[in-house]
Specification:
With about 150 residues, this protein is an alpha/beta fold. Helices cover about 40% and strands about 30% of the residues.
Length: about 150
Amino acid sequence: IKYMLNVDIYTDGACKGNPGVGGWGFYIIYNDSDYKMSGGSPSTTNNRMELTAVIESLKYIDPKYTVNLYTDSKYVSNGITIWINNWVKNGWRTSNKKEVKNKDLWLELIDLIKNKKINWFWVKGHSVSVGNNIADYLANEGINKITHHIK
């Protein structure tokens, strides 16, 4: 009998200015262990950091796991569950015929989720979700890594 193992991932992105210095973070919980990571970019946007957090977290997940992924970004949650199919069908154009922003990251995400079972959840940011608050802290830590490095 093949059974699936569950892993919970909380992701967040942050930006000081938009565009500006950005950070991303993720918090993975599996059984009784967890894993945290953060990073950043000296010049980026909030949406790029939100997507990067998701992409970076999924690089650590084996396809045998069922992922419950929590994001406070409607851009990410709607993008991957609702808008993406039309973007692909319309040659990476939005409903108003504009080029889809962050296509490079969306393509990377599509590639990463191909063989994975992912349940996508939107959570309200800066609220009662402990996992999201940790991811938010990590995203800001990512900004601090970059700003300290720049000085």
